[in-house]
């Protein structure tokens, strides 16, 4: 079988969002179709409260899902549906904005490290104006798998399959069939997880260094791979990475800030709904 080939290796750009939270935008913005069905990945991480304390005051979303994975720290979620949740180290928040959610995400600490990721996952056209939803997953609810060579995996969504070993994630989604896995590879380890042909595959290294086909990928680098073939990963020095895979929707993507729809007219309707107080 042929191997998945590297299409690109990129590095995120420093930016800020919310009320001034410092973060790295790993991908998102122009050319987002390259990562379909994923729209954006942000990495945040700081032990300086000035860089995160202002948080994300109430703001709207429509047309996609947000997945927040907290590595370290505590964040409180509130939304217009009456949901209140505390996201702690190792926990996951999965929110389906669909036709509209207005929510806030505010730090519940005044010192220490705040570190994690937020991923935006597109919704298919038929679900963009569907019912919104929200779910918190405590760290103990996230399935773990111990693999040969000392490799550890946290399977947030989809399924991890390595040979005859299978571990389902805590979330399964139709249409986009996302796979979201936190992988930790010790020095000298290798891994060949099975990814369905045709699924978009992205790897983000956030600790250490990874080798793919003899090419090294360092901390803070995003790899996009071809959509066919076998995936083979090696790490001489050890690495920790997020594996993202999903089925592309192949639909038009039109984004305006926190709204992601299929046409400009739908974006204009979202703006009117938000102004009129009928978005959520």
Question: How would you characterize the overall build of this protein?
Answer:
The chain is mainly beta and 280 residues long. It has one domain: Jelly Rolls. Helix content is 5%, strand content 52%. It contains 1 helix and 25 strands. The chain has one helix at residues 264-276; strands at residues 6-11, 13-17, 21-27, 38-46, 56-61, 64-72, 75-79, 84-87, 92-96, 101-107, 114-122, 133-137, 144-147, 151-157, 159-162, 165-168, 179-185, 189-191, 200-212, 215-218, 221-225, 233-235, 239-246, 254-256, 259-261. Strands 1, 13, 14, 17, 19, 20, 21 and 23 form an 8-stranded antiparallel sheet that branches. A 7-stranded antiparallel sheet has the order 2-3-4-11-6-9-12, with no helix packed on it. A 4-stranded antiparallel sheet has the order 5-10-7-8, with no helix packed on it. A hairpin with a 2-residue loop joins strand 24 (254-256) and strand 25. The longest helix is centred in the C-terminal third of the chain and has 13 residues, at 264-276. The N and C termini lie far apart (48 Å). The mean pLDDT is 96.
Secondary structure elements and their pairing?
Layout: E1 6-11, E2 13-17, E3 21-27, E4 38-46, E5 56-61, E6 64-72, E7 75-79, E8 84-87, E9 92-96, E10 101-107, E11 114-122, E12 133-137, E13 144-147, E14 151-157, E15 159-162, E16 165-168, E17 179-185, E18 189-191, E19 200-212, E20 215-218, E21 221-225, E22 233-235, E23 239-246, E24 254-256, E25 259-261, H1 264-276
Antiparallel strand pairs: 1-21, 2-3, 3-4, 4-11, 5-10, 6-9, 6-11, 7-8, 7-10, 9-12, 13-14, 14-17, 15-16, 17-23, 18-22, 19-20, 19-21, 19-23, 24-25
